[in-house]
Amino acid sequence: MVRVATVNCYTEQTANSAESVEAFCKLVEQAGQNRCDIVCLGETINWVGLKVRPGNSEIAEPIPGPSTRRLGELARKYKMYIVASLDEREGEATYNAAVLIDREGRVAGKYHKVYLPREEIEAGVTPGNGYPVFDTDFGRIGMMICWDEQYVDPARALAVQGAEIIFLPIWDGFNSLTEARAIENQVYLVSCSYGEMPPCAVYDPWGRIIAQAKQRPSVAWADIDLNQPKPDPWLGDMKLRFARERRADVVVPGLDR
Questions:
Q1: How does pLDDT run across 144-157, given as a tens digit for each residue?
Q2: Domain 2-245: which topology?
Q3: What PROSITE patterns does this protein map onto (predicted)?
Q4: Out of 94, 106, 128, 169, which could bridge 85 as a Cys pair, Cβ 3.0 to 4.6 Å?
Q5: Do 7 and 40 contact (CB within 8 A), yes or no?
Q6: 0.70 cut: is pTM over it?
């Protein structure tokens, strides 16, 4: 059994990146005090609340860096994993990155947002080029960021590689898409949003919300058993069926690019 959490947090106006991150850290403390194994924070938490554009070179920071060190302190204190999105600077490039902090406070992995909206492209953010998955002591996870959810391939790529839970820091979007990504890949999905949709919630593989942080600020969590199959009473194990019955041999011109 693993306890997965999300937070509902949005900083309206902060003086600097450290202050923005600290607003989320208060909720990480709550998640840790309630013995959560992993918590999902929001998108680009090191500049939300600041009056800057994404990809701002003065805000973007290295990973590891100041924000991951602060999150690492809490991860180590409560022996929990943390997922968060940060504006990252790597050499001359800036990325919208999702980072995984392990129970010892170390950076265990990161993902660069592949699908960038026009606003991030114009701001000079560099797109990622892959969908890594990460092994934890409770199972394999993957991460997507915001606009990635608009497309089917990020979640599918993670699921094909064995991800059992997908974490989604997202500014805002469509609840129907979040539900669909969970259902079509038969994975748990944890979203942390700044808008009303999708909610800050934990979804089961059937797209149902099993925990939701409705108030701001707040934390919500769900206990899930990744070893317990959840077959459809009529159709059986849908995760296996989706993998076996998908017609990868049927190619539509243009969709392979």
A1: 999 999 999 999 99
A2: Nitrilase/N-carbamoyl-D-aminoacid amidohydrolase (3.60.110)
A3: CN_HYDROLASE (PS50263)
A4: 169
A5: yes
A6: yes
